[in-house]
Amino acid sequence: MKKLILSLCVMIVFAAPAQAGEVFDRVMKDRVLRCAYTIYPPFVSKNPNTGEFSGIFYDAVEAVGEELSIDVQWTEEVGSDGILQGLETGRYDAVCAGYFTTPSRANGADFTKHVIYSPTYIYVRADETRFQGAKDLNAEAVKMGVMDGEYSDVLRNQRFPKTQPVSLMGLSSAAERFELIATGKADFTIAESALGLDYMANNPGKLKPLGPPVSMGASVILLPQDEYPLVAFLNAGIDSLILSGKLELILDQYQKHEGEFLMPAAPYAMP
Q1: pTM of the entire structure?
Q2: CATH number of the domain to which 158 belongs
Q3: Residue 7 has pLDDT above 50, yes or no
Q4: How many domains, in total, are found in the chain?
Q5: How many Å apart are CA 177 and CA 143, to the nearest integer?
């Protein structure tokens, strides 16, 4: 009986979730935030020759680290279909790639406040004439190009559940998703304005946007659930970045077309 009780106690200990604030305590002790990332220009890019990182969200998170006097370590590349597992198992402290807030991600992570906003459009082939707008797309005969676990996949489930998904793995590039449309393997996809405009500039005559923005994506840092002190800590850094004007300078560096990315609204009005 004693052995049985001991075994049950051991099982309970190992099954118990991490204590709230445990990651925050370690970050404060070591002054290090371990970030997972996804290569997804212009949010996060990596030079294949030098290994040097760049991008809107890379620069923004680095600036948050400077504001808070912590070191940001970019420790692991993850696909959009695997970001939550690493948070749950403690392989990294945060996902710092500019992922959008979605209800499905809220089931496995907590979010900082919104850092930037991205208008998201429907893209179809340049010679497409069957569809006049988003309302024409949700049909069983229509194929939608998506990336597993990415925002396009989330929006298909929310807005276009009748469509047939043509899926790419979570580490695929946005250009690969656009190629699904350009080559006729799928009829449409959904992507941020910056990605669509960049693809169309480099591949003229292949794609076109269909109608106004279909949604507005809000990019955040993803954190383990119940790490409320860490959320508040990083939010203080994000506030400083926005109110000091540093975030606007970062956006100016990368924004090629007006309206690709939007700043959070100022929490005040000038007299």
Answers
A1: 0.81
A2: 3.40.190.10
A3: no
A4: 2
A5: 12
Residues 129 and 157 in one domain: yes
For residue 266, the model assigns a pLDDT of 82
Q: What's the CA gap between 158 and 102, in Å, rounded? A: 11
pLDDT, tens digit, 9 for 90 and up, residues 104-147: 899 999 999 999 999 999 999 999 999 999 999 999 999 999 99
pLDDT of residue 263: 93
Cis peptide leading into residue 42 (ω within 30°)? yes
Whether the per-residue pLDDT at 160 is higher than 90: the answer is yes
- Are 243 and 110 in a shared domain? yes
Q: Calculate the alpha carbon distances from 110 to 101, 153, 154, 155, 265 in Å.
A: 9, 20, 17, 20, 22
- Which domain, by its residues, includes 51? 20-115+220-254
Task: Say if residues 61 and 19 touch (Cβ distance below 8 Å).
Answer: no
Q: What is the pLDDT of residue 19?
A: 59
Question: In the predicted model, what is the mean pLDDT of the chain?
Answer: 90
